[in-house]
Amino acid sequence: MAVSEMSVADKDAGPYGIAAGPDSALWLTLARSGRVARLTLDGELDEYSLEAPECRPAVIAPGPDGAMWFTRSQDHRIGRVTADGETESFAVPTSGSGPFGITAGSDGAMWFTEMNTDRIGRITSTGEITEFVLPRTGACPSAITGGPDGALWFTLNQANAIGRVTVSGDIAIHRLPTPNAAPVGITSDGAALWFVEIAAGQIGRITVDGAIEEFPLPDRTAKPHAIVAASTGDCWFTEWGANSIGHITGSGEITEYGLPSPSSEPHGITLGPDGALWAALETGGVARLEP
């Protein structure tokens, strides 16, 4: 495994989310500077300021309309940026919602989590928002992804559970076997959902029928944060506490790869258009891992 790093911002900018766009570039959120950035594979970087520098953009994901959509967790808005850098944003109806995770749904809309208000949101390409109230309070819905069943699956960080919502708004909750696991990132490999347990130091797998398996990491203090599937049974995740990128197979075999810079704080991770894995490093860079 070849691992390299590239500086894209100073440490005060805080690269956090990362996603591959339909324009064959990588898109980043710079959480602490209130910007989003477009990074080409040859290292060309363009930054786009948002109208509120303190808005704290978090997770970013491609939308069905060809734009990139992202959450603004501090000013409670959903942002949109086109390939040429035009930005707009939409206020979440519920005050103080704290949107965090975002993903495209099977219904042509974007779906997002509201950490502070126990809701899942849906936003159309024109900015119309619908909210669905969860049957738990204080659950802290975090990351969200589209499942192989056409539903949306999400982590409930403080309720120790994985949630599922259909595009019509029906909600189911699946409790985790390990207490206080604090799940965060979640992804679909096309057959099942994989998620990370940041407090328990484990990777989890849940089928669309709700059967759960958990796989302990070699270092239970590694603090896994985000996860992405490259193919069925082939997932990669960041280890914020261990300064590493991890890999897990369908049978639960785990391999870890240390990052060159110490304490680089890896957060978001994505499969790039070049077939490599790219991770956002909150200290100001991105890491590239070529299998």
Explain what you see.
The chain starts with a strand and ends with a strand. It has strands at residues 2-7, 15-20, 26-30, 35-39, 45-49, 57-62, 68-72, 77-81, 87-91, 99-104, 110-114, 119-123, 129-133, 141-146, 152-156, 161-165, 171-175, 183-188, 193-197, 202-206, 212-216, 224-231, 234-239, 244-249, 254-258, 266-271, 277-281, 285-290. It has 291 residues and is mainly β.
Write the layout of secondary structure elements.
Elements: E1 2-7, E2 15-20, E3 26-30, E4 35-39, E5 45-49, E6 57-62, E7 68-72, E8 77-81, E9 87-91, E10 99-104, E11 110-114, E12 119-123, E13 129-133, E14 141-146, E15 152-156, E16 161-165, E17 171-175, E18 183-188, E19 193-197, E20 202-206, E21 212-216, E22 224-231, E23 234-239, E24 244-249, E25 254-258, E26 266-271, E27 277-281, E28 285-290
Topology order in helix (H) and strand (E) letters: EEEEEEEEEEEEEEEEEEEEEEEEEEEE
Percent of sequence in beta strands: over 45%
Mean of the pLDDT scores?
Answer: 97
Give the overall shape, derived from the CA principal axes: globular
Helix content: under 10%
Q: Tell me the number of helical segments per DSSP (H or I, 4 or more residues long).
A: 0
Query: If strands are numbered along the chain, what order do they take across the biggest sheet?
Result: 1-28-27-26
What profile does the largest beta sheet have? 4 strands, antiparallel
How many strand segments? 28
Q: Which structural class matches the secondary elements? A: mainly beta
